[in-house]
Amino acid sequence: MPQFKVNVKWGKKKLSADLTTEESPEVFKLQLYTLTNVLPERQKLMLKGAVLKDSWEGFRVKNGASLLLLGSAEALPKEPVVQTKFVEDMTEDELNCAMDMNTGLDNLGNTCYMNATIQMLSTVPEFSAALESLPANNLAASISNLSGVGSDPIALGKKITNELGSIMKVLAAKDQISFQPFLFLQYIYKRFPQFAEKNDHGVPMQQDANEFFSELLRLCQDNLPPPTDGASNSRPSFVDQFFGIEYNNTLKCADEAAVDEEPTYSKETSIQLNCFISQEIKFLLTGVKSKLKEEIEKNSPTLGRNAKYLRTSQIDRLPGYLCVQMVRFFFKEKGQVNAKILKDVKFPLAFDTFELCSPELQERLKPVREAFEADEEAKAEAAMTGKNNQPGSTNKPIPKEVKKKEVKEYEPYSFADDVGSNNSGHYELQAVITHQGRSSSSGHYVAWLRVEADNWVKCDDNDVTPVTQEEVLKLSGGGDWHIAYLLLYGPRRLEKNAAKMVVDAAQALSSGAVAMEATDGPQT
Questions:
Q1: Measured between alpha carbons, how far is 268 from 270 in angstroms, rounded to an integer?
Q2: Which of 201, 444, 459, 482 is the catalytic position?
Q3: What pLDDT was estimated at residue 74?
Q4: Is 426 a catalytic residue?
């Protein structure tokens, strides 16, 4: 990497700085910002009459070269306080904030895989809060030391995790139309050189969003501790608590000659389910179940030769947030590419995992599931009678302003002794990452996020637009349009007043039955 020691003349000051021509001029300007407090957009750099633009082309840099910096470090004048501001007078960032629209992420060169993954993870409030609680990287120090950051994976992992927390703060604020995750990307390139690969034209290559998702969560496993809320939990990290799946595996020989061979049992963990796609698979649940029961071949100690074994897996612990990968890419010998399976596989908005669980876990799930069923029955009864069971309710429409301020309270979605788990087996879809293209090394990734109820947004890098729930359901595949690749399900929540509603409904039905008996009794 060509590096030069250069001198920078700024007014009466003469500064010394390091310059690397393989990095964009924006990096050098950020370094000068830490030395002069002149914002990069206000800097004008000259060398022998040539003005620095977006590349180093035309700049003959060498050690000891003297550059002229023009730009004022004085603070910009503050805008006058305006009590009323019309929409047409707002900036894009102000309009974005006023409309409560999600902040987009700029594409920094085939980084849609990274942007889509970050947007998907931002829908997990506990994850965002845990990241935001980490100490932020010192921006000025990070920028000035960017070129000299070593390759220590532990130190880089901490910087990446901390910088991800800074991005989550920006996304949560929703006060700007888009954000440039430049520093985060530079740390990723240094920690994972495979993501920094370039093609023959020097352009960053497209990467696999699921590979990036997996690497990012592994980093968070090492650098994001579990919440210290006093609850007992043996899991070592936040990721294990809120994303970790645990399985009970049984391996049984299927050869008739080894019927007396005892099955072997084991445990396994992962951070996502896989939906394998074949000609017969039409629905998400079927594809997931096919992976949990598979046939393998291994040496049988009883027979002294290879034999077929049936490997059966049952989920013994469900996480609060369940990620499902649609396994759509496979290596194609002809062309030497990771080709894509375009088959249409339907995925649900509400995902019930009960039949994937072990009998022991199913028993633990039943109490909350029964509460959900009772709540649904009460709501159905209210719909049939045309009455609302909530006290003090009216049929008058609720103003939009009041609806927005309403804060609902929910029952815990985790077991009391296992923070971050799911205690019902019920999930609701809250984010989708789609891929458009024919191979994993090309194409484009987009994130689709549920923002409230049935309202969704499409996060296409820095372009964020509202979409309908029906549009999201059309992402199941079958053509060259956007196809679901990663699905993120969150816990279905039970309102705190649901139990009271169930009791009230039961009492009302009981009172009605008693009144009917009194009315229909024997006449005298």
A1: 7
A2: 444
A3: 66
A4: no
